[in-house]
Design brief:
Helix content is about 50%, strand content about 5%. By secondary structure, the chain is mainly α. The chain has a domain of about 30 residues. The chain has a two-stranded antiparallel sheet. It is elongated and about 35 Å long. About 0% of the residues are buried.
Length: about 60
Amino acid sequence: MADFSYWKAPVEKAKTCDDDLEQLDWPYKDLESNIYNFGILLLEIISGKLPYSEEQGFLVNW
């Protein structure tokens, strides 16, 4: 129901133990997509509809 890609980077970082400073900015790389995904999740909760149905198509294409 929710997008857990937000937690994927810290888990991979913990497994690899790299000290690369470029990987420290991971929460800010996909901020727009996380906001979009959260909005879709709220729309699903409020409307009570699935993100996709055969009759109506994708929820975002209302």
